[in-house]
Specification:
This protein has 335 residues and is of the alpha/beta class. Helices cover 23% and strands 21% of the residues. It has one domain (14-333): 3-Layer(aba) Sandwich (Rossmann fold). It contains 9 helices and 11 strands. It is globular and about 60 Å long.
Amino acid sequence: MLYNYGMTKNYIDKVFFKSSSNMVEMPDESVNLIVTSPPYFNIKDYSKDGTQQNKIADSKDGQIGDIADYREFINGMIPIWKECFRVLKPNGKLCINTPLMPMIKKDYSTHYNRDIFNISADIQQSIFNNVFGKVGGRGFYLLDLYIWDRSNSTKNLMFGSYPHPRNFYAQNTTEFINILVKDGKPNDVVSKKRKNKSKLTQAQWVKYTKQVWSIPVPNKKDASWGKHSAIMPEEIVNRCIRMYSFVEDVILDPFTGSGTTLKVAKQLGRSYVGYEISEEYKTVIEDKIDRLSKDFSGDDMFVEEWDGEPVAKGEKDSKKDIITFDSDEWKKTGL
């Protein structure tokens, strides 16, 4: 289904409290980047707060996280990915944060050992098999895959057959960030001023493009701590937005949750659009956006200098991450 609203942009910097499976408010090809973290299957009750003790909302029709059957859960997101394709501009990126889900024997007694639901791979394949471009080919391609090493993971230990072989289990301390790209050439013009405002320092480039991201799980410093059952780290969003968008671009999160993507987008001088099915999180989202740090806002984004280059506050890197090229080496990179 196509929606064309001309130059109207009354969706900018707004959150729509409804399912993102039908984003009628959004024109075609109106978004530059999508950063999101879908529900983690049935491991969280999204009608409860971050402690999973207190009920704060009624269960909602269309809440993907309430689906009990895994295959239905994966298929239930396909309409949302199709809408993401529609609203995303050619060459726009879709960044999806997903975990592995080990299902233990007491919950699934169909087999002797545990089974891991690879949400990352299954979402990826559901997109490749169901979201198509205008000429019938695949709509999205896999551009990159990053591994989030939860450097302060509080997950329960996975003992398996400890201390004896043969069924040791890996500790579940990583998640994935799939970077999908919509097929097509960029169709917008970016001014030199916007490019200069958006460029990464060499230290940031080296740090962000390492395939393993060691980032802590959000703690009490996060405005939505204890209020939402699944908080995405701001640093994951920060890296995705800096790498795949320019200042003044439009960033979408179809599973807004506590509003992390929206907050970071605003911090980094981008516009945002959010969709969240549970209106009970409206206050949580507004509080997070309202508590923006000036350290990352507007023209003050780059305020420190290190080795002669501007570095965003809070993002100083050690000198071991600096690479030096001579002119011939730099030309060989093709950058």
